[in-house]
């Protein structure tokens, strides 16, 4: 399977959001990654439903919505209504994770679970068959532009082994510090989806950068 590329709009120019979304539309990217931060689960605040709704109005790629928030269950319907096609919640934020995943699927959305850098992939073994994606955070969540955590490669390999052993069809998504130097190693370890924010939007030619990632 070709690697999927998901530019993160957290790194986009919010004063020109429509043109930034149109740039992604015109690129070889597969998804638009939307990070939702509440200032509680992570030490930063991003944006909420109105901005997601605005992105959806211009997006021609599926919205991959990543909820870095506490109590995500109470907002699932609202993010579905705003245009989310994949909704990912954090394992660390969900007391009843299986119930949350079921609720996402009942909304006809793909369900993902994200794990922070300190979280062991073994905690996903009992739910992996229910998941469409797993996001491995390769930086500490909350801010863009952070340095990639090298231990991520081993986590990807370990998670890939769990997915294979269980017969799951879950895709492995990497979020944080992705660039041309580590992208190939991540794909080689078993990653299926690469989220790239600062690396894409700070590039001299964002569309060419997306194309290079896509070609790996």
UniProtKB/TrEMBL annotation:
* EC code: 5.1.3.1
For this entry, list what GO says about its biological process. pentose catabolic process; pentose-phosphate shunt
What highest taxon heads this organism's lineage? Bacteria
UniProt keyword list: Carbohydrate metabolism, Cobalt, Isomerase, Manganese, Metal-binding, Zinc
Q: Which residues bind substrate?
A: 8, 66, 142-145, 175-177, 197-198
What Gene3D superfamilies does the database record attribute to this sequence?
Answer: Aldolase class I (3.20.20.70)
As its record notes, the protein acts as a catalyst of: D-ribulose 5-phosphate = D-xylulose 5-phosphate
Q: Does the keyword ATP-binding apply?
A: no
User: Where, in this chain's numbering, is a divalent metal cation bound?
Assistant: 33, 35, 66, 175
Cofactor annotation: Zn(2+); a divalent metal cation; Fe(2+); Mn(2+)
Q: Where is the active site?
A: 35, 175
UniProt-recorded Gene Ontology molecular function terms? D-ribulose-phosphate 3-epimerase activity; metal ion binding
Which cellular components does GO assign to this protein?
cytoplasm
Q: Which SUPFAM superfamilies match?
A: Ribulose-phoshate binding barrel
Give the co-factor note.
Binds 1 divalent metal cation per subunit.
Which CDD domains is this protein grouped with? Answer: RPE
Q: Which InterPro entries does the record cross-reference, listed alphabetically?
A: Aldolase_TIM (IPR013785), Ribul_P_3_epim (IPR026019), Ribul_P_3_epim-like (IPR000056), RibuloseP-bd_barrel (IPR011060)
Q: In which pathway does it act?
A: Carbohydrate degradation
Similarity-based family: Belongs to the ribulose-phosphate 3-epimerase family.
General function of this protein: Catalyzes the reversible epimerization of D-ribulose 5-phosphate to D-xylulose 5-phosphate.
In its UniProt entry, what is this protein called?
Answer: Ribulose-phosphate 3-epimerase
| Organism from which the protein derives | Echinicola vietnamensis (strain DSM 17526 / LMG 23754 / KMM 6221)
Encoding gene, per UniProt annotation: rpe
């Amino acid at each position: 399977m070709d690697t999927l590329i998901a530019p993160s709009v957290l790194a986009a120019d919010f004063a020109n959001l429509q043109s930034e979304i149109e740039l992604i539309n015109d690129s070889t990217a597969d998804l638009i990654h939307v990070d939702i931060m509440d200032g509680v689960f992570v030490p930063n605040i991003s944006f909420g439903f109105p901005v997601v709704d605005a992105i959806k109005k211009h997006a021609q790629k599926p919205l991959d919505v990543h909820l870095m928030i506490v109590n995500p269950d109470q907002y699932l319907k609202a993010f579905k209504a705003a245009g989310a096609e994949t909704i990912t919640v954090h394992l660390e934020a969900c007391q009843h994770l299986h119930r949350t995943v079921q609720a996402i699927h009942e909304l006809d959305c793909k369900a993902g679970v994200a794990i922070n850098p300190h979280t062991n992939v073994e905690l996903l073994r009992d739910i992996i068959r229910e998941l469409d994606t797993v996001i491995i955070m390769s930086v500490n969540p909350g801010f863009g532009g952070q340095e990639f955590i090298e231990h991520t490669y081993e986590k990807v390999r370990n998670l890939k082994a769990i997915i294979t052993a269980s017969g799951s069809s879950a895709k492995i998504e990497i979020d944080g510090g992705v660039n041309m130097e580590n992208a190939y190693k991540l794909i080689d370890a078993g990653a299926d989806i690469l989220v790239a924010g600062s690396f894409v939007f700070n590039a001299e030619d964002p569309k060419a950068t997306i194309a290079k990632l896509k070609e790996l």
